[in-house]
Amino acid sequence: MTLSTIDSSFNHLQSIILNRISTFKFSQLRLLNVTIECFDKSYLNSKRWKTLNVEHIPYLIKFILSYMDYIDGDDDDFEINDQHALINHFTS
Q: What is the pTM of this model?
């Protein structure tokens, strides 16, 4: 299953997933591909994803997360900060 969201909170997407679990047998899903485009850095919290996947999608084999962050076009001094480094907590 592929899910895409623009400018929605993690909590909103999580509620959509939890609603689909009961309706569409989402709990037996084997592949989840999520594309996110927003400012909400909570999507980079690997512990939240792990909890969601382990507790509610136990048959999940492959999880693909694509996160797109906005960069100010006038900022030539872009640097990776602590929030961006959260992506390193995801393992394969």
A: 0.75
